[in-house]
């Protein structure tokens, strides 16, 4: 599943795009995406499903731009660990789509009523008092679309002021590894393969570019964990564990690129999800 893709280059070139051409993704690429989804093998157990769906550009689904025809939803149960795995798995798909020349944008604050109209998924929970943006917060019964993304082609000319503002406000800047280390290990002492994987991890996208992941490396360099600080709260984003899952997927890809085998696990600890990589 991971072969034949330049993951490093894909991570470096992916950007959130908020202005799309109103044309569908070519059939061939849709097939490639479907077969990639069908063959995705993750290093942990999960219950995430990826659903492609068509949206109506004349109805508001994304707050900041019109939806292109093709879109994807990442659906799972709403406990913290499942939400984190939606981030991990969703990012692998988003990077694969990027490698096919498609543009995307992780989106948590979609309009739920419009999503349900174009992609019914709430079933018995339709009647509940649902949130306006995203599925809401906290653990609820059943499965929800944790995030969605448009899938299409960047409309480069005629970018509206709001899109330009979003792009510069949520900048592509990233923190340095040294700012993200939780214990006393110094960046310059890290084995090159771990440094490489952490460098890809720090480049992950996060809601409002908050980059709230922190890295802990054991003194023998055999165990690396990725989590947000205990007690961390995001001002606007209800599911910051999604972002930690995204970051963990970049780290995992980094180890894979360097041919390092590892055991991947995740658990909830002190109110947040901790990803553990044992080399
Ligand atoms: C989990 C998640 C949720 C996001 N939700 C939104 C959103 O609701 N609206 C939006 O405009 N951008 C959203 N973004 C995009 C981020 O603002 C963007 O990833 C970040 O600013 C970094 O920019 P980059 O993706 O271009 O590297 C989200 C990103 C992530 C990872």
From TrEMBL:
The signal sequence is none
Q: Which GO terms describe its molecular function?
A: oxidoreductase activity
Source domain of life is: Bacteria
User: Domain named Putative nitroreductase TM1586: which ranges?
Assistant: 9-109, 141-254
| Pfam short name (any one) | TM1586_NiRdase
Q: What InterPro entries does the record tag this protein with?
A: Nitroreductase-like (IPR000415), TM1586_NiRdase (IPR029478)
Q: What is this protein called?
A: Putative nitroreductase TM1586 domain-containing protein
Q: Which organism is it from?
A: Geosporobacter ferrireducens
